[in-house]
Write a structure and sequence with these properties.
By secondary structure, the chain is of the alpha+beta class. A ten-stranded antiparallel β-sheet has the order 1-2-9-10-11-12-19-16-15-14, with helices on one face. Strands 6, 7, 8, 13, 17 and 18 form a six-stranded antiparallel β-sheet that branches. Strands 20-38-39-42-40-41 form a six-stranded mixed β-sheet. α8 runs parallel beside α10, α11 (457-469) runs antiparallel to α12 (516-535) and α12 (516-535) packs parallel to α14. The structure holds beta-D-glucopyranose and 1-deoxynojirimycin (NOJ).
């Protein structure tokens, strides 16, 4: 069953009923000011850091599930009836309800009793504010006399503190109201130089800034006293819970429409110019007033919206494909790319499953996110790489996360994840291949943000690689540390205390447990580093890296191969994890996917065998599960992985993030049908028709789909902020469709299903637009290129002469022996 449909033309997902199985959300903003908005206008806004600069309050895990947002109430003056055109919070039965989630905007509204009301929410480029454009139309045959009420609840900035420190917080809330603009200025009197504001384009009948005055005692958002009575009371918040609400009178003749604009924003003042007049306690509004005045004008709002549309048009035009599969087309051309922007911006901090207070930007996560983002805005990718590398430790190790506001690393969510450093190499290699900007490697970058510690970025990569060589275990495999990519495989944790965090507790020194996954990652990262070193003229370095890679490849074959698949790890007792010798957890996806995609065993059949085992033991109709058999009990020596009930999350859930590793490995083996089949199983658009089972948004990937051991097999959770976005984008565009960026140029090496007659694509790459037509002329993957009319050997398009803007490429797929892809 579906709850809406894709409007591919407008790049929107249109939700046609408000009671989606879960809130289906969108992101507003793509630079510094952000918001999350659900299909019933729930959600919140923040400036840069979802924890430290939260503008509006949101209560997670509420009942009903999604409450608190950017709400509008309409009230009929004659009957006294009131409702919300976004359904929540009043939940009246509406006609023609529609939520259109688009690229950086959402339009939500409906009709009720002949009154149509729709609000367009978006964040203009370059501004720290959001615009709500509410259009009310009278579809009745009689005139309508209405009141419109807006409301937001302010957060007292630090969302963590806001949700816990009530003994203080109930005393500090402060607002100012000037020219009908509501200013939220809690803590501005002391150490904050920033405030929020909420303004309305119309002459207002009144305002409220005190929550209890608006709601009335013991009432909720579904039934506010002030709306029921039809009057706001001009309340001024002192302590308790500051809100912002305006009331506007709207009189409409039949057929008449009216637009009201609300602007919610964030503003900073220089420390020495906070007050006006100086010495008073009144906010200096000189620089903010013009901004507010500008965007309250509907024409300026429309212009800002057009600019946002144009921005997305240009970003999404970088890679466009037209394949025989509609789900592929809309994910590649619109939604998967869009999700890659969201994961780049948010890392894993703020979604409807990430509360914004738990996690900042992850070292591992943000580096992987680059794989799906770098082509969109390379300059931002560059800046992110430098920020990440600046938090790296002198040992080559990494803080696991940093807060975007301070850009300083911290260990709040754990440390010593021994895979972390390698992802920097992967991220930088992706950047270099996309941009050819080798100057980044000479950029001086500090360690742990310590001034004076700077080295060239290239040395950071060298230290990343060395980090593993300094930490090899008894078999010569990399020591796992706290965990590797799988945060829940905690082989040194041994936690027996309830509530203890598996992510921050270690009880063993960690000199025994080893990871075959990190070995695969080391091989991949090592090859990238060797390539980079060789191109920098460092021949002996390059050879050294390749020797180490070769050595690791051998070690994996010797100690990491189980006969039919790659072992996952060795535990603290030196026993195998992910082996036929194990009672549970005999085979894991990570080592199959990553070792194979890294190239281990591609030539001699090991990788193919590993893929056969994946198909036999791990593949389900809903995707590939993480391991089998699921752990049926808690194992002290394995940690969090066995804390989950079977079929969920890391305990045999379908962890969508690592499905594309298998997909890429299948393409490297030349298996286009298998690769595309796996791709389609977790493609959210392809799952739209089972939305009542899948439950999450059909336009973005979720981190996890419940595995075959779960009672809810096929149910997705944790949508949006997951490495799944980048990896799937990378897998489909660069490996299945095979339009792959490389240091020397663009490759065209598709490994597509046998049934595809071909496809077309345009790819902007280093200033040139490539128009690509792939034509199947035989059953295999052998490629013959014709570039601007001339045949070219191999699958690499030669770099065109300076000044070339367009290149036309024909790629013929022929039935020659399948080549192993580089
Ligand atoms: C989750 C992991 C996640 C980790 C991060 C665990 O509880 O299962 O998916 O990576 O927390 O802190
Ligand atoms: C989610 C985390 O963000 C990611 O870093 C990790 O690799 C996966 N979970 C698997 O545990």
């Amino acid at each position: 069953m579906q709850y809406g449909y894709f409007d591919d033309e407008r790049r929107e997902y249109v939700i046609t009923r408000p009671d989606t199985p879960l809130p289906w959300i969108n992101y507003l903003g793509c630079e510094a000011y952000f918001g999350i908005i659900s299909n019933t206008a729930g959600g919140y806004s923040f400036y840069r850091d979802a924890r430290l600069r939260r503008l509006t309050r949101y209560r997670y895990n509420n009942a009903p599930y999604d409450l608190g947002g950017r709400y509008i109430y309409l009230r009929d003056a004659d009957s006294g009836k009131f409702w919300s055109p976004s359904w929540q919070p009043t939940r009246h039965e509406l006609q023609n309800y529609e939520c259109r989630h688009g690229m950086g905007y959402s339009i939500i509204g409906a009709e009720y009793n002949g009154i149509e009301a729709r609000t367009r929410y978006f964040v203009p480029l370059g501004e720290n504010l959001e615009i709500w454009q509410l259009t009310i139309t009278n579809r009745r045959t009689a005139p309508a006399k209405l009141s419109a009420f807006s409301v937001v609840e302010f957060c007292l900035w630090d969302a963590q503190d806001d949700a816990t420190n009530f003994q203080r917080n109930f005393n500090i809330g402060q607002v100012e109201i000037e020219d009908r603009v509501i200013y939220h200025k809690t803590e501005y009197r002391e150490r904050r130089d920033h405030f929020a504001y909420f303004a309305c384009s119309e002459k207002t009948l009144g305002f409220d800034t005190q929550r209890e005055a608006f709601l009335g005692p013991y009432r909720g958002w579904d039934n506010p006293k002030a709306v029921e009575c039809g009057n706001l009371s001009d309340s001024v918040a002192n302590g308790w819970a500051p809100i912002g609400s305006h009331q506007v009178s709207v009189e409409l003749a039949p057929g008449e429409s009216k637009q009201i604009v609300f602007v919610l924003g964030y503003h900073e003042n220089p420390r020495d110019q906070k007050f006006d007049p100086q010495g008073s306690q009144v906010i200096n509004k000189r620089t903010v007033k013009p901004v507010i005045a500008k965007y309250l004008k509907p024409e300026s709002a429309d212009r800002a919206f057009d600019k946002l549309k144009a921005y997305w048009e240009s970003v999404l035009n970088i890679c466009r494909v037209d394949t025989p599969d509609v789900h592929t087309n809309r994910m590649v051309n619109v939604w998967n790319a869009y999700q890659c922007m969201a994961t780049f911006n948010m890392s894993r901090s703020a979604s409807f499953y990430e509360s914004g207070i738990g996690r900042g930007l992850g070292f591992r996560d943000s580096n992987q996110d680059l794989l799906g983002f770098v082509q969109m805005v390379p300059a931002r990718a560059r800046e992110r790489i430098i920020d990440l590398a600046s938090t790296q430790l002198p040992s080559g190790g990494a803080y696991h996360q940093y807060q975007p506001l301070t850009k300083r690393g911290n260990n709040d969510v754990g440390s010593n994840f021994n895979d972390d450093p390698h992802w920097l190499i992967i991220g930088v290699a992706a950047y270099l291949k996309e941009t050819g900007d080798w100057s980044i490697l000479d950029e001086p970058v500090p360690y742990d943000n310590q001034p004076g510690s700077e080295t060239a970025l290239f040395e950071h990569l060298q230290r990343s690689f060395q980090y593993t060589l300094d930490r090899l275990g008894p078999h010569g495999l990399p020591l796992i540390g706290r965990a590797d990519w799988n945060d829940c495989l905690n082989l040194n944790c041994f936690s027996d205390t309830p509530g203890q965090s598996f992510q921050t507790t270690t009880n063993k020194e960690g000199k025994i447990a080893e990871s075959v996954f990190i070995a695969g990652l080391f091989v991949l990262a090592g090859r990238e580093l060797a390539e980079i070193a060789s191109r920098r003229g460092l021949k002996s370095e390059c050879e050294r890296y390749l020797n180490e890679v070769q050595q690791m490849d051998q070690t994996v074959r010797k100690y990491g191969w189980d006969g039919e698949w790659f072992i996952r790890a060795y535990d603290d007792f030196g026993n195998k994890v992910g082996s036929k010798e194990c009672k549970e957890g005999k085979i894991f996806i990570e080592s199959q996917g990553f070792c194979s995609l890294a190239g281990i065993g591609l030539e001699d059949g090991l990788a193919q065998k590993s893929m056969d085992s994946v198909r036999k033991y791990l593949a389900t109709d809903h995707g590939i599960v993480l391991q089998q058999p699921a752990y049926s009990q808690y194992y002290l020596h394995l940690g969090e992985i066995s804390s989950y009930p079977p079929g969920y999350k890391e305990n045999a859930g379908i962890f969508c993030h690592n499905n594309p590793w298998v997909i890429i490995a299948e393409t490297r083996l030349g298996n286009g049908d298998a690769a595309f089949d796996y791709y389609s199983r977790i493609n959210p658009s392809a799952r739209e028709s089972i939305s009542d089972l899948h439950r999450c948004e059909p336009y973005v990937y979720a981190q996890m789909i419940a595995g075959k051991d779960a009672p809810t097999h096929g149910e997705a959770k944790n949508s949006w902020l997951t490495g799944t976005a980048a990896w799937n984008y990378y897998a489909i565009t660069q490996w299945i469709l095979g339009i792959r960026v490389d240091h020397d140029g663009l490759r065209v090496a598709p490994v597509v299903p046998g049934s595809w007659r071909g496809f077309t694509a345009t790819r902007k790459f280093r200033g040139v637009t490539y128009h690509i037509e792939v034509i199947r002329e035989g059953t295999g993957n052998h490629v013959e290129l014709i570039v601007d009319g001339r045949p070219v050997e191999g699958d690499l398009i030669p770099v065109p002469p300076e000044g070339t803007t367009d290149v036309h490429v024909k790629a013929m797929l022929r039935a020659a022996k399948t080549a192993v892809r580089s």
